[in-house]
Structure formats: structure tokens, C-alpha cells
Amino acid sequence: MKKVSVLAAAVATALVTGSAFSAEKVNGTDVVTDGWEVHGYASMNVRQIDGHTTDNEYGKPDYQTAGTLGKSTNQVEFTIKKHTEHANGVWSDFVVRSEFGNGNSFAYSSSGGQKDNTDSQFEVKETFVEIGALPYLGEDTSVWAGQRFLNRSAGLLSGEFWKQSSGVGAGIQTKISGKTAGFAIVEADPGGEINAATASDDRTTLTSHDFYFYGVDAGIGSMDFDLKLMKQANKDSDNSEGLGASVTLNSSYYGMDGWTQTALAYGQGVAQNRGVNFGQWSGGDDNAESIFFTSYGVMNISDKWQMGSEITYMAALDQLFGVEELKRYIVAVRPSYKVNDNLRVEMTASYGHEEGPEAGFWNRAGDGTESNIINLEIATPLTVNADYFGRPQIKPYISYIKADDEASAALINISNDDKEVIVGVHAEIWF
């Protein structure tokens, strides 16, 4: 073949190839990844006391006990996420978290009597859209809007959420020198109902302006910083504002093998409830001021032994929930022994304390102004993985609760004597 013919053939081939590429040109908005993720959680607690079920949590939400005492007999939660990625790098998430039975304590049969329980029906807890890597904001930045639990943290053994912004809002999150930084506005309406008698809609909407900066190197771990400026509508000037702040250290188990999360928080006014725990329960006046401390984690002692622990303290600096000198604290440990790959033994011990002014508070007097509660529990989780967090599991347990006197026992709804024995089986799974 002549050189001219070879050159002509090469040019022709290039033109044809170029035409083919041109026909398959990719647009930046083309979808390159599109899929669904399904996650969930379930907690089914079967408890009996003297042959009947109970609604009693024995002061667990108030840091009095740390046993397997949640009252939900059939709490089920599903989180569904649709994740999409585009050719130009932009991505989006649509998240829906639904829940049924949270807080229900009745043992329903197949007749479906739970339809009459308006407190623990099917609910949508989160539904929001998040879009990230928009070209005019940068690949490390995302924006979101909708209803969500923003930046939640809960105690390991108490199970209480001490940090969150639960409500409807919008926000932006990015990276600064490799650290996570964000700003959000979240609002929540107490009650959520219009007064039918007066047709009044004077809503006392709560709003939190959240600023957070996470992942700061502290040498022994990383530190997270939260600042929340809160306000409440249709309240007088003494009941309409608040400030909450916290600093959190994520580290090893106090220098040993394992992990801990340790936090110190301050709350004032509307933010009196642990400072950074925002939701429809928020509120307070100018006299409300509190401090909150918590430290919890899991230590890996050996191949067979692990131990979870929690120390939590909250107290009034001026007033807390309308009470001067109010303080609560709990100390709890849960050693866990791996019998084999599918069986472990758990032992839980906790000591909870609450006290207020000697003059009495919340209609309490005498022995009722101070309480000391001991909770001892033994359990034998049957599980697919005997690690501390191995799930799913079925956990038979016996929990013994002893108060320092009958007045203290009555505060956690023990009406006969000063002690109680609870027998139950708790099934739990997350995925």
C-alpha cells in the first residue's frame, strides 16, 4: 500500500472513531450510580412482674437505672436511602426513617389492638434530601433539607440521647483542613396540635441555630465542638432564648484497648436540657442554667472479656427544670464474658442518685427529696456473634432494683416495699 493510502486510511479511521465517541458523549448530569440501601433496628422486650406486663422504666430516662428496662414490646425501625451519583461528581441521598411501636408497652395479639394506641403508631422520624459535590460549592460540601436527627449521641448504658437536633430544617456541611464543619437551622413545634376549641394557632415554635466543628486532633483522640443558639416563639422575653455548647473527646478506653466518648456540655435558658439536646422538649426561662458531663465506652480486656461503662452527671447551676440545686448522676458497668462464639454472659450494675433542695420540690418532701437506686442484672445473650455489640441476639435476663427507702422506690413507681425483680427476654437487631 502506498504511503498516501496508509495516511488516508489512518485519517478515515480517526474520523470514524471520533464520530463514535461523539455519539457516546457523556453529559455531566448523566446518572452513573443509582441504588437503594435498607437499614434497620428492632427491639422486642418481653417483661413480666407478678404475672403482668408493665409500662415502668424504673427511672431509666432520668439516669436512675441502667438495666434492660426499655418498655417497648415491639419497636421496629427501617431506614431507606436512595443514593445517586452523576458523571460530574454530584451526588444525592434521599433518606426516610420510619418507626413503629416506640414507647408501646402492651403485649398485643393478632387482633391488631395496637390501632387504638395513638402514641406508638407508625411514624416517619426522618425524611430529608442531601445533595453533595455541587460544582459551585466544592466536592467536600453538601446541603440538606427536611426532617432529621442531626448529630445524635447517646449514653452507652443509659441509652439516653444527650446530643441531637431533632426537627425540621436545613443545613450545609463541608470540610475545613480535613475537619467536618457545618451549620444548620432546625425547628420543632411542642405539642404539634391546633387548639380546636379556640382555633388558635399561636405556635411556640422552637428554633436552634447549630454550629459544629468535628474531628480536631487532640493527641489522645479527636475532639468535636457544638454550639447551639436557641429561641422560642410567642414567649415573653424571659422564656424565649437559650444557649447550649459542648465539647466531646473521642478516644481510647482511658489509655487502654477500646474506645470512649467523653463530653462536657453547658445549657442556659431554652437550652437547659443538657445544652445540646434540642427538640420539642426544649424550653426554659432566664433562671435555667445547667451543666452536663458524660463518659462512656467499651474496654477490650482479653479475648474473652469486655466491659462497657458509663458515668453521667447533670446538675443545676441556677435552676434545672424549675428546681434549684437539682442534681442527678449514674455510675454503671457491664462486664461481658464470651462463653463461645454464640453465647456470652452479661452482668450489669448501676448506682443512680438524685437530690434536690431540702425544702422539697415537685411535691416531694422528707425522704423523697433524695433517692439512691441500685440496679443489678444478669443476662445470657444468645447471639450470632458473642462480641459486645454482636447482633442479632436474644437475651434472657433478670434485673433486681433496690431503693434506699420506700419514698425513693415510689419515685420510680415501685409501690410495694423498696425493691423489684423483673424477668424478661429482650430481642434486638440492627443492620
UniProtKB/TrEMBL annotation:
Its main location: membrane. It is found in: Cell outer membrane. InterPro entries: G_neg_Bact_CarbUptk_Porin, Porin_LamB, Porin_LamB_sf. One of its GO terms (molecular function) is porin activity. Transmembrane segments: none annotated. Pfam families: LamB. One of its GO terms (biological process) is monoatomic ion transport. It is a multi-pass membrane protein. It comes from the Bacteria. The keyword Signal applies. GO terms for cellular component: cell outer membrane; pore complex. Keywords: Cell outer membrane, Ion transport, Membrane, Porin, Signal, Transmembrane, Transmembrane beta strand, Transport. Residues 1-22 form the signal peptide. The keyword Aminoacyl-tRNA synthetase does not apply. Belongs to the porin LamB (TC 1.B.3) family. This is Maltoporin.
